[in-house]
C-alpha cells in the first residue's frame, strides 16, 4: 500500500487530538511513536547492501510494521456494506471505535432531520446492542448524539438479539433503528446496522436495513461531520425501555406456533439441545420455546451465557467447523431429537439432527460417528418454505401467513403506529400472490416449492436488506442460515422465530414417526434432489480478490463434474433478463448442461471469494429410502467433482 508518511502521520496526529476515547487515542499514539522511531543508522546499513545486524533488522521491521498498521487504519472511514458498518475494534477511521460511531450517529441524525424536516413529532430512533466488547458504549454514544439534536431515542434495556431491535422498529413505529453488533464475526470485531422505517421508508422496505440510495445519502452526511469535538452529545434525555418491548416480541413470536393443547403435548415430547454460542439469544429463545410448550430444552452449559470472547469456539459462526461440537456432543449424550444453534446476535439459526445415513467413521464417540449432522441452510430454507406454503394453502391465520397477508395488503397507513400498535406505511400491494424469496446464491428448490403452491418466487441480491424488501413477502431466506418467517413484524432474518417453527414441525413429525429428513425426502421426490455446498478462498492481500474474479471471467471452467458449461453470466454486466431483473452486482453465474449451477462472488463481510455450488439429481416420485440414499451419494460425488473444478479455476 503506497502512502506519503508525512501526510499520514499528520492525519494520525489530528485524529488522536479529536478522539474522545483515551484508550484508542493512546493506542494510536503508541503506534505513532513506534512508527517515528529513529532508524537512520539502520536505513544507511540497508542502503549499503551489506547484511543487517539483528538490531537494525528489528528496528526496521517494527517501524515498517507500525506504519503499515497505521496506513491500514487510515484508508478511509468504514463504509456501509452488506451488514452495515463492520470492522475490528481499534483506533483510526477504518476501525470500530467511539470516534467512528459518533460520526456515524451524527450523520444518521442529520439525514433523519433532513428527511423529516418540518414534520412533527421529532424523529424516533430505537437503539439496541449485543454483548460484544464496546457494544454498550457505542449504543450510549449513539443515544447521546441523537438526543442532543432533538431526536427521540429509545434504548433497549440490556444486550438483546438483533431480531428484537428489528421488531422494535416496526412495533414502536420508529423512523430508524440502530443495532450495535458484529453478528458472528470474531471477538475482536464490532459493527453498526441501520434500519429505516416509520415515515422515512414506507411500503415493503419499512423496518428493513438500508440499501442504496439511503446508504450513500447517510454516508454523505457522515462525511460532512467536521470533527468529533464538533458533535454535541447529551448527558441524558433518552428513554431506556423496560421489558415491555421484549415481552411484546416474545408474545409475537410465540403466536407463530400451534398453541393448541394437542400441539403442546407433542412439544413436550421433543428433546431439544440449544446453544446461543456465547451470544445474547439463549435466554430469549429458551423463553419462546418454553411458552410454546417445549419443556425439554437443554442449553449447552459452556455456551449458555453471553461472553464477548467466545472462549469455547474458534469462530462464533454455526457454519464454521467445530462451532457445533459441544452441542452435538451433548445431543448424543442425552438422546436429543433436535439441535438448534443461534449465532451470537441470534439472527441466524442452525439445525442439526441424527441422520443414520450420514454416519462417518472419524473415530469412536464422535457426533459424526453417531450420525449427527447439521442441515445445510438451503435444506432448512426449503423445509421452512414448504411449511409456509402449506400454511398459506390451508389459510392458517397465524404466523407467516398473517405476515404475508399484512405485507400483501401494503401495511397500514404511513405514520407512527396504527391502533393495534403495528407500524404503518406503504401503498397497497395489489392482488399479486404472496412471495417466497431467496438470494441468488441460494438453492433453486424454493422456486419450485413456490410454483407448486401457486405462489410467486422472487430472487434477490445477497443480504436480507434486499430480501426484506420483496413486495408481498411471506417467507425469505438465504443459504447462510438466515430465515424470515414473520415479515409483518420482523423485516429481517430472525433465528429465534425460525427455531420455533423448526421445533414445532419436528414435534409434529415425531408424533407420526417421521423427522425433518422425511420432509426433505418428500421434496426430493416432488422436485428432484437438490444438494448445495460452498467453496471459498480467503485472502490476506485484498487486491487479489478483484484479480481472481477477473481471471475467472477470462477463463471460466468449460465443464462442471464432466457436464459441459452452457452459460456464463456476468452479474455485473449481463442483460436484465440474464440478471433476472436484479440490479448489477459483482459475480458470475455458471450453469452446465445437467443443471449444475455455480455462483461466484466476493464476500460482503469477509476477505473471501465465495463459490456457491448446487447439483440436481432426478428422483422418482415413488423412490424408496434406498433410492434416495443412492441419489444423495450421487449428488455428493458430483458436488465434490464440481468443487474440484471450481477450485482449479480459482487457482486454490
From TrEMBL:
Superkingdom field = Bacteria
User: What family does the Swiss-Prot or TrEMBL record give for this protein?
Assistant: Belongs to the phosphohexose mutase family.
Q: What is this protein called?
A: Phosphomannomutase
Q: Cross-referenced SUPFAM superfamilies, in alphabetical order?
A: Phosphoglucomutase, C-terminal domain (SSF55957), Phosphoglucomutase, first 3 domains (SSF53738)
The UniProt record lists the EC number as 5.4.2.8
From what organism does this protein derive? Cellulomonas cellasea
Q: Name one GO biological process term.
A: purine ribonucleoside salvage
Which Gene3D superfamilies would you find in this protein's record? Alpha-D-Glucose-1,6-Bisphosphate, subunit A, domain 3, Alpha-D-phosphohexomutase, C-terminal domain
**Classification via InterPro entries:** A-D-PHexomutase_a/b/a-I, A-D-PHexomutase_a/b/a-I/II/III, A-D-PHexomutase_a/b/a-II, A-D-PHexomutase_a/b/a-III, A-D-PHexomutase_C, A-D-PHexomutase_C_sf, A-D-PHexomutase_CS, Alpha-D-phosphohexomutase_SF
Give one GO term, molecular function aspect.
phosphopentomutase activity
Residue span(s) of domain Alpha-D-phosphohexomutase alpha/beta/alpha: 79-220, 248-353, 435-522
PANTHER family per the record? PHOSPHOGLUCOMUTASE 2B-RELATED, PHOSPHOMANNOMUTASE 45A
Amino acid at each position: 500500500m503506497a502512502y506519503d508518511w508525512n501526510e499520514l502521520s499528520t492525519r494520525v496526529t489530528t485524529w488522536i487530538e479529536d478522539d474522545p476515547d483515551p484508550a484508542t487515542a493512546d493506542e494510536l499514539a503508541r503506534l505513532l511513536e513506534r512508527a517515528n522511531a529513529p532508524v537512520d543508522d539502520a536505513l544507511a546499513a540497508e542502503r549499503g547492501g551489506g547484511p543487517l545486524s539483528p538490531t537494525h533488522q528489528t528496528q526496521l521491521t517494527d517501524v515498517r510494521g507500525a506504519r503499515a498498521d497505521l496506513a491500514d487504519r487510515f484508508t478511509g472511514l468504514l463504509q456501509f456494506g452488506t451488514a452495515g458498518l463492520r470492522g475490528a475494534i481499534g483506533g483510526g477511521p477504518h476501525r470500530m471505535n467511539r470516534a467512528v460511531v459518533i460520526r456515524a450517529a451524527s450523520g444518521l441524525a442529520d439525514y433523519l432531520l433532513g428527511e423529516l424536516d418540518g414534520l412533527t413529532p421529532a424523529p424516533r430512533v430505537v437503539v439496541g446492542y449485543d454483548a460484544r466488547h464496546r457494544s454498550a458504549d457505542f449504543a450510549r454514544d449513539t443515544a447521546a448524539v441523537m438526543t442532543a439534536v432533538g431526536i427521540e431515542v429509545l434504548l433497549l434495556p440490556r444486550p438483546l438479539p438483533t431480531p428484537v431491535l428489528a421488531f422494535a422498529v416496526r412495533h414502536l413505529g420508529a423512523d430508524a433503528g440502530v443495532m450495535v453488533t458484529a453478528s458472528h464475526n470474531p471477538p475482536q470485531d464490532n459493527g453498526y446496522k441501520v434500519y429505516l422505517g416509520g415515515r422515512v421508508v414506507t411500503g415493503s422496505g419499512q423496518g428493513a436495513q438500508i440499501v442504496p440510495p439511503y446508504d450513500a445519502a447517510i454516508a454523505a452526511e457522515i462525511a460532512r461531520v467536521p470533527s468529533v469535538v464538533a458533535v454535541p452529545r447529551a448527558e441524558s434525555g433518552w428513554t431506556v425501555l423496560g421489558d415491555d418491548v421484549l415481552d411484546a416480541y416474545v408474545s409475537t413470536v410465540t403466536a407463530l406456533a400451534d398453541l393448541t393443547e394437542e400441539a403442546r403435548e407433542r412439544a413436550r415430547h421433543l428433546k431439544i439441545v440449544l446453544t446461543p454460542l456465547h451470544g445474547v439469544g439463549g435466554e430469549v429463545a429458551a423463553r419462546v420455546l418454553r411458552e410454546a410448550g417445549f419443556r425439554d430444552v437443554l442449553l449447552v452449559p459452556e455456551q449458555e451465557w453471553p461472553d464477548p470472547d467466545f472462549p469455547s469456539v474458534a469462530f462464533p459462526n454455526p457454519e464454521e467447523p467445530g462451532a457445533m461440537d459441544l452441542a452435538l456432543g451433548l445431543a448424543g449424550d442425552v438422546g436429543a431429537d433436535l439441535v438448534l444453534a443461534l449465532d451470537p446476535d441470534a439472527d441466524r439459526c442452525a439445525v442439526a439432527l441424527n441422520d443414520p445415513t450420514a454416519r462417518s467413521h472419524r473415530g469412536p464417540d464422535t457426533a459424526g460417528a453417531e450420525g449427527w449432522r447439521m442441515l445445510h441452510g438451503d435444506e432448512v430454507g426449503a423445509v421452512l418454505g414448504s411449511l409456509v406454503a402449506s400454511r398459506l394453502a390451508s389459510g392458517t391465520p397465524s404466523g407467516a401467513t398473517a405476515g404475508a397477508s399484512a405485507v400483501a395488503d401494503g401495511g397500514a397507513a404511513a405514520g407512527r403506529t396504527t391502533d393495534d400498535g403495528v407500524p404503518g406505511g406503504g401503498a397497497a400491494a395489489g392482488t399479486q400472490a404472496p412471495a417466497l424469496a431467496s438470494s441468488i446464491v441460494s438453492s433453486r428448490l424454493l422456486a419450485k416449492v413456490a410454483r407448486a403452491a401457486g405462489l410467486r418466487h422472487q430472487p434477490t441480491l445477497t443480504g436480507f436488506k434486499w430480501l426484506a424488501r420483496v413486495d408481498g413477502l411471506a417467507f425469505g431466506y438465504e443459504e447462510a442460515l438466515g430465515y424470515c418467517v414473520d415479515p409483518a413484524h420482523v423485516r429481517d432474518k430472525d433465528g429465534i422465530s425460525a427455531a420455533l417453527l423448526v421445533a414445532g414441525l419436528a414435534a409434529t413429525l415425531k408424533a407420526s414417526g417421521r423427522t425433518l429428513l422425511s420432509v426433505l425426502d418428500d421434496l426430493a421426490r416432488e422436485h428432484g434432489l437438490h444438494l448445495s455446498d460452498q467453496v471459498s478462498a480467503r485472502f490476506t492481500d485484498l487486491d487479489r480478490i478483484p484479480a481472481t474474479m477477473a481471471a475467472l471471467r477470462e477463463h471460466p471452467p468449460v465443464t462442471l463434474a464432466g457436464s459441459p458449461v452452457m452459460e456464463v453470466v456476468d452479474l455485473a454486466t449481463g442483460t436484465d433478463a440474464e440478471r433476472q431483473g436484479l440490479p448489477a452486482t459483482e459475480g458470475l453465474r455458471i450453469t452446465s448442461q445437467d443443471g449444475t449451477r455455480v455462483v461466484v462472488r466476493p464476500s460482503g463481510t469477509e476477505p473471501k471469494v465465495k463459490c456457491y455450488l448446487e447439483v440436481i439429481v432426478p428422483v422418482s416420485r415413488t423412490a424408496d429410502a434406498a433410492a434416495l440414499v443412492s441419489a444423495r451419494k450421487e449428488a455428493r460425488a458430483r458436488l465434490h467433482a464440481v468443487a474440484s473444478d471450481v477450485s482449479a479455476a480459482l487457482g486454490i
